[in-house]
Amino acid sequence: MTTPAPTVEIVEVAPRDGLQNEARVLPTPVKAELVRRSLDAGVRRIEVTAFARPDRVPQMADAEALMAEVRDDPRLSAIGLVLNRRGLDRAIAAGCDEVTVVVVSSEGLALRNQGVGTYEQVAAWHAIAPVAREAGLRTSVILAAAFGCPFDGEVPVGRVLDVAKAVLDDAPDELAIADTIGVGVPGQVVDLVSGLVDLAPQMPLRAHFHNTRNTGYANAIAAVQSGVSVLDASAGGIGGCPFAPGATGNVATEDLLYLLHRSGYTTGVDPQTVAATGQWISDQLGLAQAPAQLGRAGWFPAPQR
């Protein structure tokens, strides 16, 4: 009897984390097309937008308009990123299926990203959680800067686990860790994921990596080998964090799919379709080429003609 291949779920974040750090602000119909192309590739959970202040993140100023264009697609589980109760109310009214709440693990980035400290953000999560559940939304909390901070430096595993414990007092449906500035290495990933598994053995874990220092893909494979079942990625490898100096792009969805599929994992997502989308969205942004590699290098072995 053949053992089925292990499955990793992909969350496409290009419409939000991909676009929020790009200089060119795309029109709403182009963003909607990015969502539809991702659905066509087989992705089902998509971080569509963020419900943030337009003066702080102008790329997300059309959150409600974008949701109105895509929310009726039956294939889509639409994720909205929210920072506070006002953001949650907007996400509910816009028709999101899920919300991701950000809690920054380091005090320095917490203050610069949201204007309040880490544990004030934890308190915001506790205020959001019952309202989101009452509205029927699935919830995720993402522990940002879990591997390092541009202002505080190293972020110890113990600090992240303490923040996770505080979050888990009102447990989300999913807990995520993010290498917001792309400084982590696989050993850190193993230590942190193992700590989270010990802390909450039944909690589904998700990870979000940036490839700033070319460690994002190694970190991703270390994460799934350690107990993470969901990975974020951005078509074309576009994006980053506008509040973290030097934070370059996310891991590219198509390149991550190559790594996972060739390593024996299944995702239900077609890498070639994503690669074409990565090239297309990079063109829309006026980039000379997509940061991703697969669209240029092609699959191996090459498909038989």
Automatic annotation (TrEMBL):
The keyword Thylakoid does not apply. It comes from the Bacteria. Residues 8-275 form the Pyruvate carboxyltransferase domain. One of its GO terms (molecular function) is metal ion binding. One of its GO terms (biological process) is L-leucine catabolic process. Keywords: Lyase, Metal-binding. Gene3D superfamilies: Aldolase class I (3.20.20.70). The keyword Ligase does not apply. Belongs to the HMG-CoA lyase family. This is Hydroxymethylglutaryl-CoA lyase. It comes from Mumia zhuanghuii.
